[in-house]
């Protein structure tokens, strides 16, 4: 790896005649860009793409995400929206924003342009994760709804739950990933919470 000097570097700069190799975790430190386009491509610091913006941020410009001051020069660590050209970001800040937004909602926080903004950010090595489908979102937001006691005593089975009484389903007060009927784990009516064995 031309950045850290260790072996095992498998990413090679795409530029013809350039033999520089690097590890993916070393890319940012070495000023390298990895593009997550339909065809994966990587470039070293010397051959990486540059933004076509002539202007540089002035001394009062702040990153729209972290609100910290920007460097007053254009660099690897500073990116600008290609549409409005007024929204400046630190590379790490816009990558974090992309990771949290997902492809469907990743856009310039200032002008709200999506298509040109995403295209430019991808070209500059900023990747957003693919969208979650509706089934995945429903699974994430689903409330645990079964008794996980070693031996469930409920005549209606593990999935039966009542609002109160011995077959009221309590979720673990720490993780909410396991549940029990009151009677199956010996939780009397005077207690409002229960904690699973793992927690």
UniProtKB/TrEMBL annotation:
Pfam annotation, one family: zf-HC5HC2H
Gene encoding the protein: G2e3_6
Keyword entries, A-Z: Ligase, Metal-binding, Zinc, Zinc-finger
GO molecular function, a single term: ligase activity
Species of origin: Rhinopomastus cyanomelas (Common scimitarbill)
Top-rank lineage group of the source organism: Eukaryota
Gene Ontology CC, one term: nucleus
Start and end residues of each PHD-type domain: 1-48
Name the record gives this protein: G2E3 ligase
Domain RING-type residue range list: 63-112
SUPFAM superfamilies recorded: FYVE/PHD zinc finger (SSF57903), RING/U-box (SSF57850)
SMART domains according to UniProt: PHD (SM00249), RING (SM00184)
